[in-house]
Amino acid sequence: MYKLQCTNYKLCSRRRVSRKWSPYLYIVICTFYIVSLAGCASTQPESRTRDGLLGTVITLTLYDHAPDAVFGAMFDRIGAIEDEMSVNLADSEISAVNAAAGLKSVTVSDETFALLRAARDIAALSDGAFDPTVEPLVKLWGIGTPDAHVPLPEEIAAARALIGYRDLTLGEDNGVFLARENMGLDLGGIAKGYAGDEVLRVAREAGVQHAVLDLGGNIVVCGGRPDGKPWRIGLKNPEPGADGYFGVVSLFDGAVVTSGGYERYFIEDGVTYHHIFDPQTGYPADSGLKAVTIVDDNSTQADGLSTACFVLGLTRGMDLLGRIDGAEGVFVTDDNKVYVTPGLADRFEMTDGAYEFMQN
Ligand code: ADP
Ligand code: MG
């Protein structure tokens, strides 16, 4: 069984950089609901929301009367990760690696290096369905920007030819090298997950015992509800613009991370194009799924796997999860059938009759 290594890091101080996120990159994603907190009224939660970090809306909810400084340290940690790893910040470490593609190796921080290793491992396990070198395709399609458009087939072929995690070298002394010019890293499919692990670590070190952390729909919870029951996380109906949830996952601790085609997309000539690409085709993945949710102790792993499984589709995605220790999943097909991995069956409940629960 494979288990992703996850290392903890010291709190980084926040570098001041100008943010280049365009308003078009912001989306309010609500991929979950906290279902029924009746009986919890004795413990008033405190929430803080920030719009813009990691290009999304982040809401941290703590149930332990944490002082403002704890929220501040948590948001600072997320900001430091963005500063290092965002492909949209010209002075991030990832941008430095991309600028030196085909030319030279760039030394990065321990945590960027470790996350790149984790990303490369998931790329290898998923046979390149998840690939951290997907940046040329992301840039070409421009989904989430005002320039979003369907590229020409020859442009797609050229971008595809630049993608390949095997051409990412993670060398001595944290040196990172992309083999060919115009290759590029994009950690958009895994960095929010890593930020989830880190922000939880910061909270725990500050003594927080019960928390729900929402990083743009990537959920991390700890400690169960203050009344001793598990958190109940509703999984959003995977239709563009839809409200409500189709099922509920119960858990005390862990990450619940969803990838879907309904979050970030544009429509051209009546066709919807979303933001998760199949590196094999160069087009948005079309594997027969509306959404995949991964439940895992490790939020980094959950994030990478949600993107991978969405590209792989039901059969190959289920097979991948079966090979990875501790990773469970909920798959929603284009025809509204819901499949759940055996290890999650007793923690998942269907709540919407419009979806059909498929017994494995
Ligand atoms: P989100 O972060 O929007 O909730 P995902 O975790 O699935 O959803 O990540 C999607 C992002 O990952 C894209 O915006 C892009 O930056 C990147 N990406 C797109 N396709 C792939 C892929 N095949 N492998 C790795 N990363 C990808
Ligand atoms: Mg992901």
Description:
- This protein is α+β, with helices and mostly antiparallel strands and 360 residues long.
- It has a domain at 32-68 and 208-357: ApbE-like domains (T-fold).
- Helix content is 26%, strand content 24%.
- The protein has helices at residues 68-85, 93-99, 110-125, 135-141, 153-160, 191-205, 299-312, 314-322, and strands at 32-34, 46-51, 57-62, 106-107, 168-170, 175-178, 211-215, 218-222, 231-236, 245-251, 254-260, 265-268, 271-274, 289-296, 328-333, 337-340, 348-350, 356-358.
- Strands 2-3-7-8-11-14-15-16-18 form a nine-stranded mixed β-sheet.
- β5 and β6 form a beta hairpin.
- α1 (68-85) runs antiparallel to α6, α3 runs parallel beside α7 (299-312) and α6 packs antiparallel against α7 (299-312).
- The longest helix is centred in the N-terminal third of the chain and has 18 residues, at 68-85.
- The model is unreliable at 1-30 and 38-42 (pLDDT under 50).
Topology:
Blueprint lengths: L31 E3 L11 E6 L5 E6 L5 H18 L7 H7 L6 E2 L2 H16 L9 H7 L11 H8 L7 E3 L4 E4 L12 H15 L5 E5 L2 E5 L8 E6 L8 E7 L2 E7 L4 E4 L2 E4 L14 E8 L2 H14 L1 H9 L5 E6 L3 E4 L7 E3 L5 E3 L2
Bound molecules: adenosine-5'-diphosphate and magnesium ion.
What general form does the structure show? Answer: globular
Task: Please give the CATH class of the domain at 32-68 and 208-357.
Answer: Alpha Beta
Unreliable residue runs: 1-30, 38-42
SSE string, helices as H and strands as E: EEEHHEHHHEEHEEEEEEEEHHEEEE
Q: Return the average pLDDT rounded to an integer.
A: 89
Bound molecules: adenosine-5'-diphosphate, magnesium ion
- Beta-strand percent range: 15-25%
- The number of distinct helices, counting runs of at least 4 residues, comes to 8
Query: What is the CATH superfamily classification of the domain at 32-68 and 208-357?
Result: ApbE-like domains
Which class of secondary structure composition applies to the elements? Answer: alpha+beta
Q: Which strand order spans the largest sheet, edge to edge or round the barrel?
A: 2-3-7-8-11-14-15-16-18
Report the count of strand segments: 18
The CATH architecture category of the domain at 32-68 and 208-357 equals Roll
Q: How far apart are the first and last residues' alpha carbons, in Å? A: 21 Å
CATH names the topology of the domain at 32-68 and 208-357 as T-fold
Sheet having the most strands: 9 strands, mixed
